[in-house]
Design brief:
globular
Length: 122
């Protein structure tokens, strides 16, 4: 288990930007895939983006060109840069880490942060 802490959420107007951070406490991240997920009330948690241990990235279609996932292993951090935010991007954002199977870029997310709220509203 890796202890994760998210930060950077908040209230932003449509078209605005936020940068979410995910910090690992007491552990290294270099061998893990990092994922960002969004959850809204009454719905299941959905994957937004992930980055493999070797830096390959995936972004879901609805955020491509607006969100960018990245990582800094030396700082034990993962990031989600969010640009041109829309009201439908609102929700609680969770980061997670996992050790995917050899054939997968991401997956087996086993450690989760507590989440950070993102609200996009005018």
């Amino acid at each position: 288990q890796v202890r994760l802490v998210e930060s950077g959420g908040g209230l932003v107007q449509p078209g605005g930007s936020l940068r979410l951070s995910c910090t690992a406490l007491g552990s290294t991240l270099e061998n893990y895939a990092i994922g960002w997920f969004r959850q809204v009330p009454g719905e299941e948690r959905d994957g937004v983006a992930c980055i493999s241990s070797d830096g390959r990235t995936f972004h879901r279609d609805s955020v491509k060109g607006r969100f960018t996932i990245s990582r800094n292993n030396a700082e034990k951090k993962g990031y989600l840069q969010m640009e041109d935010l829309k009201p439908e991007d609102s929700g609680v954002y969770f980061c997670a880490v996992g050790l995917p199977p050899p054939t997968a870029m991401c997956g087996n997310f086993s450690s989760w942060g507590q989440g950070t709220q993102v609200t996009v509203s005018s």
